[in-house]
Amino acid sequence: MSYTVITGANGFIAQHIIKILLSNGHKVIGTVRTQEKADTIANLFDNENLILEIVPDLNAVEAFDPLFKKYNTQIKYVLHTASPVDSTLTDLQNDFINTAITGTLSVFNAIKKYAADSVESVVYTSSSVAGANFKTFLDPTAVINEESWNPDDREDVVDILSAYSVSKKLAEKAAWNFKEENKDVIKFRLSTVNPFFVTGPQAFDETAKGKLNTTASYFEQILASKPDGNLAPFIGSPAVDVRDLAKAHYLALTEPRFDGQRIFLDGENYTTQQWYDVIHEKFPELNGKIAKGQPGTNKFQEGSMAKMDFSKSKKLLGFDQIPLKQTITDGMRQLLRVRGIPQN
Fold first, then answer.
1. DSSP one-letter string for 56-97
2. Which residue, 79, 66, 96, 101, is CA-closest to 21?
3. What would the DSSP string read from start to end of 245-303?
4. Using CA atoms, how far apart are residues 35 and 41, in angstroms rounded to an integer?
5. Residue range 75-91: average pLDDT?
6. Quick check: 235 pLDDT over 60?
7. Which of 69, 177, 250, 285 is 20 to 30 Å from the Cα of 298, by its Cα?
């Protein structure tokens, strides 16, 4: 019997990955920080092939040792998706950067100690912001590809966004460095998945009934906007469907061709107005109930951002991504359904 370990199992992205793993016959061990979260995830999936283990503190150097010691050579695959993204955290260096690095190294050290001979593949969930800072993204003369790295470091951290960006960069670098420094001991394949703004429906309707976190909350912000008010502030572009992202993780985990690769997932660029235009088109029942802006105007202007060249990633992945209009439609339809808002 072999297991696939996924950290941060209660996360938006992780739940979609777990669905794919289970549907492909994997026996999954998911880690969460509390018993309450373990109970919630267990009830959502209701699958005997999913085991939940509690790892309460990612800041602990040996946080994952008990888990890997318990299952040791039965572990074949590892996905590390857990990372601090809580906007209420205030100690930027410790809560974001140190936790991200320590959590990553804790996973890798645990593999080295207890499962070096059995783990075949590891995927680390990184981010597009590990490849560039926001200044670079907004520079039309810049080119960003799979070889790009965010130039910012600890001393450049001034707010939550910059702290998150630097945390993803340094944690990813820690993963690559660990693999290189321990190549005589650990033999697993390593790849990272670096998405842009992740959006789309929740893995379960039940999750959508509660308060949505991070990027998924944008649908809530749109629904809460006032008919005569401003459009909800936009928080990211280009956008990636979470279901495509989960698929990319699975391919990177199971296909040897992804070894040593940084897989960047971008998508279509929509302005805030374009998001609203799609929602008003697909859900006319919301006309007069949410903000409208100036339909048909303020479309994304090609050449207004850095050039993204992720042709290498697209070739490796080999699938067509879900159109953003479909992603927006599916995400909003789910939210309306679970909130009991009638749809035409």
1. --TTSTTTTHHHHHHHGGGEEEEEE------TT---IIIIII
2. 79
3. HHHHHHHHHH-GGGTT-EEEE------HHHHHHHHHHH-GGGTTTS---STT-S---TT
4. 10
5. 81
6. no
7. 285
The Cα–Cα gap between 99 and 107 comes to: 12
Question: 170-196, pLDDT tens digit by residue?
Answer: 999 999 999 999 999 999 999 999 999
Place of tokens 């003369």: 141
Residue count (the chain):
344
Q: Where are the domains of the chain?
A: 1-197+238-263, 203-234+267-305+322-336
Reading the block at residue 128, the tokens are 């597009």
What's the CATH superfamily of 1-197+238-263? NAD(P)-binding Rossmann-like Domain (3.40.50.720)
Catalytic annotation on 113? no
Tell me the pTM. Answer: 0.95
Token pair recorded at residue 172: 């990813």
Buried b (16+ CB within 10 A) or exposed e, 19-53: bbbbeeebbbbbbbbeeebbebbbebbeeeebbbb
Amino acid at 224: A
Question: What values do phi and psi take at 286, rounded to 5?
Answer: -90, -10
For the stretch 206-216, pLDDT in tens is 999 877 776 77
| 323 secondary structure, DSSP code | P
Sign of the C-alpha dihedral, residues 147, 151, 157, 161?
Answer: negative
Q: Which of 168, 169, 282, 292 is catalytic?
A: 168
Under the banding of pLDDT at 50, 70 and 90, the label for residue 150 is very high
Which helix (H) or strand (E) segment holds residue 309: the answer is strand 307-309
DSSP-derived 3-state class of residue 170: helix
Give yes or no for a contact between 110 and 68, defined as CB atoms under 8 angstroms apart.
Answer: yes
